[in-house]
Amino acid sequence: MDKPFAITLDLGSSRANHTGSWRSRRPEYVDRLPPCNHACPAGEDVQRWLYHAEEGDYRAAWQALVEDNPFPAVMGRACYHPCETSCNRAKIDEPVSIHAVERFLGDLAIREKWPLSAPLPPTGKRVLVIGSGPSGLSAAYHLARMGHAVTVREAMPLAGGMMRYGIPRYRLPRDVLDAEVARIFDLGVHFEPGVRVDDVATSVAEGGFAACFAAIGAHLANRVEIPARDAARIFDAVDLLQRVEQGEAPRLGRRVAIYGGGDTAFDAARTVKRLGAEEACIVYRRTQAAMPAHAFEVAEAAEEGVTMRWLRTIKRFDEDRIVVERMELDEAGRLKATGEVETIEADALVLALGQNVDLSVLEKVDGVRVVDRVIEVDDRMMTGHPGLFAGGDMVPSERSIAIAVGHGKAAARHLDAYVRGEKAKAPPPREVATFETLNPWYYTEADRTSQPAADPVRRRATFDEVNGGLTADDALFEARRCLSCGNCFECDNCYGVCPDNAVIKLGPGKRFRIDLDFCKGCGLCVAECPCGAIRMVPEDG
Amino acid sequence: MSQRIKFYQTGTLTAGNRLLDPETRAVQSSVDRSNALTSGHRACQGCGEALGARWVLDAAMRATGGQLVVVNATGCLEVFTTPYPESSWQVPWLHSLFANAASVATGVAAAMRSKGSAVRVVAQGGDGGTMDIGFGALSGMFERNDDVLYVCYDNEAYMNTGVQRSSATPPLARTATTPALGPEPGNEFGHGKNAPLIAMAHGIPYVATASVADLHDLEDKVEAAMKVHGARYLHVHVPCPLGWGSASDDTIKVARLAVQCGLFPLFEAEHGEVVRRTPIRQRQPVEAYLRLQRRFDHLFAGGRVDVERIARLQAIADRNIERFRLLTGD
Ligand SMILES: Cc1ncc(C[n+]2csc(CCOP(=O)(O)OP(=O)(O)O)c2C)c(N)n1
Ligand code: SF4
Ligand SMILES: [Mg+2]
Predict the structure, then answer these.
(1) Is residue B2 domain-resident?
(2) Is residue B25 a part of any domain in this protein?
(3) A278 in reach of chain B (CB within 8 A)
């Protein structure tokens, strides 16, 4: 063998000295659960698809995304993104704008006409899905991919459920929704619109279905008794939004009051504005802070000229005004009527006081249990009736599109196992990658990218989309703000910082291995791993 | 905009980065690095000196295309790497005495020159070997402008013989010879010297400070040093878990705090003038640095914080920040 320059004698290498024997703790590579994934009700592996997006490989990113959720363009717009609320980057500057990147990927896929990957070979099993909202379509998507023959029945003329009849167009343009829905049907899902299922058991039996997933939502509006001279001037928000979507907007008048403080109240108020009302006034019983609506909804509504009156209950609706009573908080923070009344001029009143499930479809089915006006399901999303699964707004939950999509996915997994006579195995639990497991020193400063928004004044007159998407450059930048919490992104720090040269670099995509012959267990690789993908464990014995 | 896209999660703060072009990644991120100081050495767990030496020499190996001879002074770095007949060095390496590394390196450089060889020379030693017993030899090497890069691994005491004070030991630090006793616990204020500034006073082509807290910065400086000929000096801050009483996994964190608090300024000088400084990125109080090290325990004894003494150290850090313009770097 050629000897290096100036070396003439063989000499022993210190590599004969296995200093690994000094060790009492050893580093171990882990894949912790990123908080975004942990928080995502739809079960998305956010960190994983961002990882592909960071490389500019949007196709791979989108592919990874739709493994879990077939609606990136919809969800990137309409989801309230709990992932961002729990994003670790918030503790450095601001959360990664996950929804904006998701939307970018979704829009790109639509533009590029990327197809969903082909289903597995047919299983020969037929499955019925009742309802084509986010939950039903999510289940249909996953079941179809598993090779089942899926039929979706829908009472309304078009698919989408709340995505179509609840979320206004200015938040979710219909061409976007249509494109993502069509892609699911293109997998071979059989869609039957305008078909209301009244008798589940008979439908299942007659159709030869091996199992059924029901997700009919909660679209019965809660009502309160409000004495009114003209009851025809009182509308339900859900009903109003649905009629607007069907091109049958009622005449409301110049001034409209909306009763309620949730997102639906704000959707209604902003819709009413766009229908031409000069005034849209939110009336809410509690304080501003207690409003369940999301902050951005409130802010965008205010920009569009929606006014708000907090701490007011509606007593009466007279000819052209509503009479409200002022409320206040007592010292214990409890809501208390004051007896003081005032009036708000209004030609119409929209009630947005929450929704209920139409239980008539399921409650007569054998074994199905109703608790608190929703359908009880077990941890497999199955009702008390074997083979009948349920999800979305009709089962106990916080009711959001993301949750509904997650229910659909979970139900599909268990339903699939059910028809095979198996039990779905739960994935092994993963430790959450908390901020404390990271080494934030290594992350460069990078402010969050914001999406362009249409001018508020122009917004009032049109149902055009309010928020724009990110440019490709911005999307790439935003994806690269991700800290890759808990998952190695091959920054080579462990390999670089080991004083004992005991980290073996395996090459791109293959990560690293610890050379236990020489690792003394100092823990530097763990301490200097930016993303918390290594942990120290005690040596046994 | 395209400027913005260059940024990727960690930029160049981490050793590598899958999206940066290979040139921008550190030598230490490469599977082709020479591992000039390889595994099996007997340095303590988390040794900053072992780490710093590999970083420096791998960078020098790359810069010279492997045409390198290393001369080592006595000290931990020599002792933990070469118990007969084993050696951890994967580079031609020579050890003579505690005091004479600079002189031996001068001789090697002269020999290479007379042979018409392009082989370059690096001399290296601890702070004791460099700043105390070997200082005369070093100054001679500087004033003759011999073609040697001398690297001092500063762990702020004579570690190999049991943590005795050196002229690099900071005020207040407890060592075996500066116990934390009496009215002036630990090392005295007003003692010691600043080797990089003295090196600069020789007017040599290149002087720089570096730290195991900043890999890219360190490698850049080694590369810059190897680009020039003549006498060059690199002073590298290398925490010693044993001597400083810090946790083995805190070595880089401690080094980082020393830089971020201003106690260890990072700069480059050419021909006696400071030409570049590495700006402080996240300024820290010296107290954060001190708290991780048991050699400063007496400042926090019994739950009481010795505010006055800490303020004196803080003043030194503040003065560095001002003097080297460390907040802006320009
Ligand atoms: C002339 C001479 N005096 C004393 C010693 C003993 N000795 C060996 S290493 C050392 C201390 C080295 O300290 P430093 O140079 O700071 O290196 P470190 O071990 O801290 O890395 C001493 C005093 C020696 N080898 N030769
Ligand atoms: S930084 Fe990335 S991985 Fe971490 S929580 Fe945010 S989006 Fe998820
Ligand atoms: Mg020393």
Answers:
(1) no
(2) yes
(3) no
Ligand 2 atom closest to Cα of residue A47:
3
Rounded to whole angstroms, how far apart are CA atoms B123 and B234? Answer: 10
Which residue has its alpha carbon closest to ligand 1 atom 10?
Answer: B75
Contact B9 A496 (CB under 8 A): no
| B6 inside domain | no
Return phi, psi of residue A340, to 5°.
Answer: -80, 135
Report the C-alpha gap between A269 and A348 in whole angstroms. 12
Instruction: Specify the DSSP class assigned to residue A535.
Output: E
Residues with CB under 6 A from ligand 1: B 49, 74-77, 98-99, 125-129, 155, 158-161, 166
Which residue of B lies nearest to A56 if distances are taken between CA atoms? B19
Residues of chain A neighbouring B66 (CB-CB closer than 8 A) = 4-5
Q: How far apart (Å, rounded) are the C-alpha atoms in residues A407 and A470?
A: 29
CB contact under 8 A, A524 and B46: yes
Residue B96 located in a structural domain? yes
Contact (CB, 8 A) for B158 and B164: yes
Residue contact A496–B31, C-beta within 8 A: no
Would you say the CB of residue A483 lies under 6 angstroms from ligand 2? yes
| B249/A524 CB distance under 8 A | yes
Say what the pTM is: 0.93
Q: Give me the tens of pLDDT residue by residue for chain A, a chain 541 residues long.
A: 577 776 666 678 999 999 999 999 999 999 999 999 999 999 999 999 999 999 999 999 999 999 999 999 999 999 999 999 999 999 999 999 999 999 999 999 999 999 999 999 999 999 999 999 999 999 999 999 999 999 999 999 999 999 999 999 999 999 999 999 999 999 999 999 999 999 999 999 999 999 999 999 998 999 888 998 888 899 999 999 999 999 999 999 999 999 999 999 999 999 999 999 999 999 999 999 999 999 999 999 999 999 999 999 999 999 899 999 999 999 998 999 999 999 999 999 999 999 999 999 898 999 999 999 999 999 999 999 999 999 999 999 999 999 999 999 999 999 999 999 999 988 899 999 999 999 999 998 888 999 999 999 889 889 999 999 999 999 999 999 999 999 999 999 999 999 999 999 999 999 999 999 999 999 999 999 999 999 999 998 5
CATH number at residue B301: 3.40.50.970
Chain B 29-68, CB below 8 Å of chain A: which residues? 29, 31, 35, 37-43, 45-48, 50-51, 54, 66-67
Instruction: Determine the structural domain holding residue B119 and report its residue range.
Output: 18-323
DSSP state of A119: P
Whether A441 contacts B13, CB under 8 Å: yes
Domains: count for chain B: 1
Residue A82, ligand 2, Cβ within 6 A: no
- Residue B26, classed as helix, strand or coil, is coil
**DSSP H or E stretch at residue A122:** none
| Amino acid of residue A87 | C
